[in-house]
Each structure stands twice: as C-alpha cells, then as structure tokens.
Amino acid sequence: MATTQHTLVALVEDKPGVLNRMASLFRRRGFNIDSIAVGHCEVPHLSRMTIVVNGSTTVVEQVRKQLDKIIDVIRVSEINAEDAVNRELALIKVKANSTTRSEIMQIVDIFRANIIDVSADSLTVEVTGDEDKIDSLYDLLRAFGIKELARTGRLAMARGGSNSLRPEKES
Amino acid sequence: MKMTGGQIICESLQKEGVDVIFGILGGAILPLYDTLPQYPKLHHVLTRHEQGAAHAAEGYARATGKVGVCFATSGPGATNLVTGIANAYLDSSPMVAITGQVARPFIGKDAFQEVDITGITLPITKHNYLVLEAGSLAKTVKEAFYLARTGRPGPVLIDVPKDVFVEETEFHYPTKIDLPGYKPTLKGHPSQIKKAAKLINEAKHPLIIAGRGVIISGAYAELKQLAETAQIPVVTTLLGISCFSENHILSFGMLGMHGMAHANMAVNAADLVIAVGMRFDDRATSRVSGFAPNARIIHIDIDPAEIGKNVRVDVPIVGDVKVVLNELNKLITPAQHVDWFKQLDDWRKEHPSTEIRDSGKLLPQFVVRQIYEATGGEATVVTGVGQNQMWAAQYYCYNKPNTLISSGGLGTMGFGLPAAIGAKIGSPNTPVWCIDGDGSFQMNIQELATAAQERAAVKIAILNNGFLGMVRQWQELFYEKRYVATPLSGPDFVKVAEAYGISAIRVKRTEEVVPAIERAIAEPGPFLIDFVVEPEENVYPMVAPGAALHEIIEAPVKEVAMWQRRSTP
Fold this sequence. Notes:
- The structure holds 2 protein chains of 2 kinds.
- Chain A is an alpha+beta fold.
- Chain A has helices spanning 18-28, 57-69, 101-110, 131-142, and strands spanning 4-13, 32-40, 46-55, 73-79, 84-95, 114-119, 122-129, 146-151, 155-158.
- The longest helix of chain A has 13 residues, at 57-69.
- In chain A, the strands form 2 sheets. In chain A, strands 5, 6, 7, 8 and 9 form a 5-stranded antiparallel beta sheet that branches. Chain A has a 4-stranded antiparallel beta sheet with strand order 2-3-1-4, with helices on one face.
- Chain B folds into 3 domains: 2-170, Rossmann fold (3-Layer(aba) Sandwich); 190-350, TPP-binding domain (Rossmann fold), CATH 3.40.50; 356-539, Rossmann fold (3-Layer(aba) Sandwich).
- Chain B is of the alpha/beta class.
- In chain B, the strands form 6 sheets. In chain B, strands 3-2-4-5-7-6 form a 6-stranded parallel beta sheet, with helices on both faces. Chain B has a 6-stranded parallel beta sheet with strand order 11-10-9-12-13-14, with helices on both faces.
- The chains are: A alpha+beta, B alpha/beta.
- Chains A and B meet through helix 1, helix 2 and strand 4 of A and loops of B.
C-alpha cells in the first residue's frame, strides 16, 4: 500500500508523562513518525500536538485510534493537507564572512526570512514556511557551510472558521 | 475528617465495593498495610510471590466480574507484578494494582528498592498514576476503578510513595468522574447496525465468531437470540469459550490453531463472518491473508482500535456487545440454512476433532473429559498454559456461562494455580478446577501455600507428562524431534502438596481416574491429583504457524474412538 505523509493533530492533557505515553506507543507499535510539535493551545491546561506520520491510510488510522485510547489524549484528528495551512519554523546558523555576507542576505530576503543574529563568522537565519520552502533555503545556504540547524516540525491548522479539533471527543 | 493516605485508600476501596485484596507487603507499602486492621471488611490474601497476587486478582475478577485488586511494595515487589498486569491487559481483565514507592524525597535518586514502575507498566496498563499528594488519592482511586471496569476493561496501576500513605488530609470521595479523554462508545451506530442486519438476513453461509467480549458484556442471551433467530452456527475463540453453551445445537466449538477442524473449515467456507467481541488474534485467525477468504466481515467491538487492525472489515460496529446485539436483533428476520448445517455436520463427522484413542494408556484428554463428567460441567476451569490448556479447552464441555479462565493473549505459564485461588475466593460456592501441566504448574507452585493458608478449595489436576509439552510438540513436528530443554524431572507433586498441608494422590492408570476425581470433589479443602499421563501425546487438530486456518493437521493415528465430545445432531 502506498505510504504518504499524514498530519495528525492531538489535544492532550498538560500533565507529566503524556509525551512519554505517546512516544512509547509510536515505538512499541512501530509507527514511523516524521515530526512532533507540542505547545499550549486556546484551552488552559491542554496542549496541542502536531504529529507528522508516514504510512498507508490503514496505518495512520491505527495511529489515530491508538493515540485516542490514551486516557490523557482528549481528541485526535487527521488534517487534510489541502484544506489546511502548514507551517514550520527553522533556525539556520550559516558560515559567513565579509565576502559572502551580502550574498546570503539577498537569498534570505528572497525567502522573506530574517537574520536574527550576526557574528564575525556566522549569520543565524529564521525562516517560516512549509517544509519545501525551508528545504529549498537550506539547500541554497549549504553552499556557504551550515554550522547548525534546528527545525520545529510541522504545525497545521484547518482553513476556514471551524476548529481543527472540536473540544469534545464525541459531539 | 482528616485521614492518612493509607486510610483514604482503604476507605476508597470500600466505596468501590472491594472485599478482597491479594498482595505481599514490604517496606514502602508498610504504612498502607498498617491501616488494614482498621478495615476488617477488606480481606487480605497473602500470596507467596507478587506474580501470584496479580494472577489471583485477575482470577477473582474474571470469576466475579468485579475489579480485582492487588498490592505490592516498591522495586522488586512492583516488578514481580508486571507479568500479571500484562496478562490482565491482553485479556481485558479489570484490575487495580496499588504499589508502594520510595518516599517523595528519594524519587529519582535510585534509592533502595526504587523502580520506575509507572514507566515500566506504561505499555501494559490501560492507565497508570504516580500519586504525589494524599489530596489526590481519593480521586485517583475513583478514576482507576472506573477505567478498569468500563469500556474495554483492563489493569490500572497506582504508585504511591511511602510518605504519601502517612500524609494527612481531608477525605471526600468524589461522586463524579471527570475524564474528558475517556468516553467509551457503548451504542453502535444505527446505520452500521442496519447494514449488518442486511448482510445477516441475506447470507447463505453465515458464521458467528464469539470472543471474550460477550462474557465481559454479559451478552449471553443476546448472542443466543441472534444465533437462534437467524440460525447461525457459533464458533468461539479460546477466551470466548463458555459465552455460548457448547451443548447447544448451533455450537461448533473453538476455532484457531488447536480449534475444531469443522470450526476452522466453517470459517473458510462462510460467506459472512459476524465477529462479536473478539480481536482477530493470530492464534485464532492463523495466516491472516488466508482467513475467511469468501466472507464479508462484520466486526462488533467496544475498542475502535481493534477494528481493521488485523483483518479487513466490511461493517465495523463500535460499541458494547450487549447493547449492539440488542439493537441488531430487532432487525434480524428468522432464517434457515439447512444446506449449510448439513455441510458443517458432514465435516464434523468426517473430521472428528475430540476423539479419545482407546490406547490402554492414561491419556490427558481422558482425564479432562472425566473431570467434566464428574463435575457435570458445573465447575469453573482455570488452566495453565500449553498442552494442558488446549486439552482443557477441547475436552471439557462448557455449558455454563463464564466457566473457563485461561491466559489467552499473553499465554502465561504459571497462571493456573494463583488464578484458580482467586476465582475460588471470589466464588466460594462454585467448584473450581485448576487443570495444569507439570511445567506450567511449577512456575507458581509456591501458591500452594496460599491455597492452604486460605483453605481455598481448589482442585488441582496436573497433567504430568514430564515435558514442557507444547514446546516438545513443536520440536517433534517442526524441529525433527530435537527435544532441547523440554524434558523435566520431578518433583514428586504429591509430596510437595503434602509438605504444604494439601492432600494429594497420584494416578497412573485409567481406572484410577474417576475415583481420584471423586475423592478430590469429596475433600472439603484444596486437593491435588498428579496424573502421570502419556508423555508424548500431542494436541490435535493443529494448524501449523503460517498456514491458513483450514490447512489442518489431524491426529495421525486413527484408532477406535472411545469418546466423542458430543453426539452429532
């Protein structure tokens, strides 16, 4: 069966061990996770997780159902890529000297990225966008030498006025 | 009123209707035990190993339908529970395990007898808790019992640091549960139920595969009504045994690796499988790609994650089996499937799966059959794991609901004796027979002391073949008879039992079987019979690992049938 990337969004209790429970489940059932991003959401004491999974539809459905069985997981939904906005943030520390600095700055401009730190031999670039955009910028900057890269993993939200995750498990 | 953490736990257990606790104490849980004398209604059963406590709690839970409770101390006490917790998890048994933990200031310091038991049990519990303040204890116990017994039941562990047991706080038992992430679906989707009814009403060769979900849900009458109305043959999984009377004309026995040949053939030929409260375990389905190749599949289960996990499903229905069957039955039209039953009966005649050879030797199958005859099928049978388990499943005829307690999912050797003790303590008026193998029995033989101390009148039948028999059978069939590490020597089980203060006898000949069983039944307390059976007897029929369900290995030598399990209708 064809494997494709799927985006799952989970609303979870903000309690110790929740991430551990989810990570343990991925490992034990052999699910292939590309990225997980976690942070607060609009409801106090709940966190929102965006999980990018690689697999067939059947496998992803299993991931969703198994996650939903965790008591601390309030709700899990799959977000349809076409009806959603996807963003990731990356920080890229690239080697730079007086001769390359301006060229890097031009590339950064084209990508509407920002330079957030400068030193004698480096620039730190902040870029936001979908994975393809970040990959492209990274590929261009690689020619100058990458000192460090940090990516957040994907965040996703359904387009339009409705919440990607209804607050109740069954409604 | 202010209470200590220990008192709060005991009060909460009483509120949950607990009357028996199985466990062993130790340093970290000592303060909880110290409060037990204030609660004489909580009867504590001291097992001799924490694994025994967990299995006994599960045996109790499965015999009574209540939540089984076990206690253990920190570190090794807690890790010794692990096998029992995993067993309860895989067989969906309601259990609450309370473990002592090192005092809060020592947590994370690798203190004496400290182990991260919530981390260890993460994948084998429905949920677990580390309670860091006495103020959360009542709420935690309430949630734990609710989680353990509702939805798909399972084990819940509560880890309590030693100093939390003595911390004082106000006790209020909550009346409400607030678990926004836990809302089991009980009612099946009406349109799915309609679709299922349509398939059932149109099917020519329908087959019900019933599992333990029927027993958990108590849907005996509903299942019977469905089968009788639409005239559908019923086969069960190992753990589904006793959810449908095996004396019933529509019963076609157990399917699977050691299932009845005709049951497996029925799965292969069915045009519709109605899977009720079962999870398509690999021992039941055998090779999944060859499973029910001609059938559409309706799957009724309370756990949505079981749907489509192993087998493709045409009509999934998530819900409580009893509730769903009730709705489904309203839409079922009476039917007859004369040709289908004729076919099944022909297979049953052509492939008798539970004959007993007239060999003149003491055969384990004969022993099981005689236990059935002597108890009239009134006993609860608790098994070990291995050949003994399969013979107990095949040769005892389960006519009464919930009369087989066996370790199905985890396949835990050593489950039999402690689970039988728990079952007996939970249902003192029901005869309880532990049918075990000599290998399996030795894995928790120390619990003879518990049976003796509690005067738990379990009747123990050891099918003693001097081998780890099921593994030996695999070595014989698939490893060219290289009997590596399967022969067992000793001990003298009669002497062992007597050393524990339990009466026992040894049986070596066929004619001694019935008098021995009758003596065991007459004995008021526990009793052990060491049946020295034919050492290299195999369990048949058998589906080899990797084969399809209908590719059945039958007993190679056809001798005169002494016994057949039931008269063919």
